[in-house]
User: Fold this.
Amino acid sequence: MTTGGHGTDGVERRGLMFVLSSPSGAGKTTLSRLLIERMPGLKMSVSATTRPMRPGEVNGKDYTFVDKATFDAMVKADELLEWATVFDNSYGTPRGPVEAALSAGQDVLFDIDWQGTQQLKQKARADVVSVFILPPSAADLEKRLHSRAQDSDEVIRKRMSRASDEMSHWAEYDYIVINHAVDEAFAEVQSILKAERLKRERRIGLVGFVRSLQGQLQG
Ligand SMILES: Nc1nc2c(ncn2[C@@H]2O[C@H](COP(=O)(O)OP(=O)(O)O)[C@@H](O)[C@H]2O)c(=O)[nH]1
Ligand SMILES: Nc1ncnc2c1ncn2[C@@H]1O[C@H](COP(=O)(O)OP(=O)(O)O)[C@@H](O)[C@H]1O
Assistant:
């Protein structure tokens, strides 16, 4: 699905799809924002959703907020790379920006649930790197959902009751990070991305690079 761009060391490589999933409130959004701020060459995939906007969210940045009819039209026109229903709302990944970023040699970051992760893996397994974020405890999870202060008590109850379901998919992920302290969890997620960028199979320019090194040695 991807063509290739150049890594920071100048060797051409395939772009990767970096997926973060977790039960609601475990810290995906916080970690995603830090990754985008601090990791050059990584672009956020902005999902479309029918969920109402939360205070502080920006349309087109956090999500593209659409009504159900618009979402259904996007599905029908095959404009979504994957989509799913979560908490009675529809969420989906617009295909165009992802394909454009990957073919420009950028990596793409996804904050999507297990259903979306499965769909991406079916489409491009070799290019997907998936990380599941766990909270340190149920009490911490609940505290974080309250501290975010953006959802009603009823919505928080729904999110807590769905957490166990979401968590049951942890073993489908390549990496598991427990989000105790943000800085440490961020450092772990960053290490995963850095290592995955160096994977031999993604570095399609290596054959040429090594040939040229050998040429220099022989010449
Ligand atoms: N499959 C899929 N899931 C999404 C997408 N965008 C967001 N999600 C997931 O939908 C769930 C709810 O997201 P949201 O309402 O923003 O609440 P959050 O869990 O507090 O971030 C989270 O598990 C997100 O990862 C998407 O485009 N596709
Ligand atoms: N390691 C952490 N320690 C304490 N609070 C955290 C930590 N990580 C995230 N939070 C806070 O918890 C709340 C939920 O985090 P958020 O990133 O929105 O989760 P998600 O996107 O998974 O729903 C936010 O208020 C965030 O600032």
